[in-house]
Amino acid sequence: MNSAPIGVFDSGVGGLTVAREIMRQIPNEKIIYFGDTARVPYGSKSKETVTRFSKQIVRFLQTFEVKTIVVACNTASAFALDALEKEIDIPIIGVVKPGAKVATDVTRNGKIGVIATEATIGSRIYSKYIKELNKDVTIYGKACPLFCPLVEEGLWQDPVTDEIAKRYLTELIDIDIDTLILGCTHYPLIRSTVGKIMGEGVTLVNPAYETAKELKELLADNGLLNETPPALGENQYQFYVSDGAEKFKRFANSIIKYGILSAKTINIEEY
Asked: Considering 190, 207, 224, which residue would you say is the last residue of a domain?
């Protein structure tokens, strides 16, 4: 099992920030990545729909005999993780708990902001986990639905993104939060913009980084870490999408510097 791949999935390209962190922190591991680009975004869909989509993707990933699965999507982590855990017998983690834990640890004044999709904010999943860790902390959620399309259009450092970010984040500045969770895997790609607006006094928590860190611990605890570097020429990272493979490949190569040679389109509805 140690040499088996890790399955990673997201509603589209945002989960590539998680995959990138896994590549950095656990460089010997193989990754099978699936982006549900035909059905993105998940953030505006119901819990039932997101759960159904997530189960299909997990069944697809299991055809590769993956040793663990990372739900690299905050919405799917909020809506589907509990159901997925009951269906499979391999370790599975989402991106919400690792980010919630770190935010609780680093806050100084007990005021934590969360920016995410409408679904993630509406689920109050971050509030649930943070309150379990520290009931005295106050959580302020803010849905930022335009961030995902701006990121997917490559407008990471653009006056339009700056303006939208100012509108979204002003109320969190006024509340005087000292910690802000980037509660969507797209958002680390505009981290510099968010950080500039929030100011140096606010700690930004990147769940993508924290999830990769927790994944490494999970694999080690279960004796599943791959200690052997990949063989020369081995296809260490494989990428699959439900639509738009070429566009996905271009976007992926802009943020992952490991040379994504191909992305294959599959009919996820078959699973």
From this structure: 207
